[in-house]
Amino acid sequence: MTIEPYRVSAYNTSKQSENKIHDDAVARRFGFSGGLVPGVDVMAYMLHLPVAKWGRAFLERGLIEARFVKPVYDGEIADVTAEESHGGLSIEIKSRGQLCATGSASLPASAPVVSVADFSETAAVAERRPVDTASYQVGKWLGTIPRTWAGEAAQQYLTDVRELDPIYAAEGLGHPGLLQRVMNKVLVDNAILGPWIHVGSRMQLLAATKRGDELTARAKVTGNYEKKGHRFVELDALVVANGRTPLAHCQHIAIYQPREQAAA
Length: 264
Fold this sequence. Notes:
- This protein has six helices and eleven strands.
- By secondary structure, it is of the alpha+beta class.
């Protein structure tokens, strides 16, 4: 089966966000050309191809992994391509002639059984404090403020990530990229961060997200370390709908304190 390439005019949804890595001036201080399109939205671009191939089945039990190699910038064209590989897809995103993201997607015969009880339900901190290593201590459980994307908010999300597949509106489903946004909130809801960067994720879908579901994450910190002057955090989490239905088992990696460098 030929996988049609997918072309997106990238959009920085987070220009006004608390994370100033998405702000042009601040991002240049870290050596980038401008504000970064969020990794979770780049992953949403990647998700278009496996959903185009497998449809609702992928939304119910698909597996996707992504690594963000170089930034995608606002207004630039992002070309998403996929090749058949070992029964799944090998995916790349290129922009400005550079490889920006790599990933893979597959459709397991069935969704793995994951128990909600294995993931501790924890509230987000009552008062956020400036981030330090104790914010994401290994073994610590972190929760999120519940979030809902319904009606206009659900449609606005599809517009923001340039998603045109009719399956979401036709079947009343939420885009799986929303689950990645919830994963980012594990970090944001529990500390006051400076500029930070999402660098990679693995997401095993367990059920299709419905528009209007109340989404939370139950996350355990599995890594907190320094590498090349950056401080990284790794999370293992379950994203849950309405406090009871497991939607996705996710691993999430981010640089929560990047090494600052002079702009080129």
